[in-house]
Amino acid sequence: MRALSHLSAYQHMWIMVLFDLPTTTPEERKAYTQFREFLLDQSFVMAQYSVYLRHTTGRTQSVPIIDRIKTAVQLEGHVDILQFTDRQYADIVSLRGRRRNDSRENPDQLVMF
To answer: Partners and quaternary state (predicted)?
Structure first.
C-alpha cells in the first residue's frame, strides 16, 4: 500500500480554463455552447461565466485533459488554460462584493473516474 505522501497538496493539480469566444452569429453561439458543454462533460465545474475548474491528481493526468481541450477549441476566440497545485488553489483570495474570503475551500471528496 502506498504511503499517504502521494496525497500531497503540492502534487494534486487544478486546471482552470478561461475563455472568450465570439457569440455574434448563431453559429458562434452554437460553438460557444458546444465548448461549454464539452468542459462540463470533461468534469469541469463553472467558477464564473467562462471560467471553469477541474481537480486532477497530478500533471500526468492533466496532460491528456489539456490535449482534449486543445482539439475542442474552435478557430476563433481566446482560451487560456492555467494549472496550479492544490496548495496554490487554497491560497486564492476571493472577493464577493466587498466581503473577502481569505481562502477557498477544497472539495471534501475526490471524484475518481
So the answer is: Homodimer, forms a heterotetramer with a Cas1 homodimer.
